[in-house]
Amino acid sequence: MASTVTSGSLVYERRIVERVHKYHWPAVQLNLWMLIMLIASCLIIGVFATFIQIQQTLLLPIPWYFPYYITVASLTASFILLLLWLIFQRRLLPSIVMIGGFILFVFADDS
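RE: above sequence
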């Protein structure tokens, strides 16, 4: 009887293929929407900051919604900046835009 002896070892490599799904974003609509939202949020920050300054100058109480609107507008501006960063990294997903837009809609509509 003959026996076979092997002196090597087999190495199996498992390669993980990462599939990156690319979404086609309509450039004009997305840029126009982001520009309008950024302008609106900066305008809201400026207007309500001026209102607070006038209220303080006149020694009047500041309504609760003045700082609330400034906070929501600041969150909106930071969300737009986050979207721009994700666009440049090519990692912008529709779920991020939808969930973030919904959260900001609820915040803006809460008053």
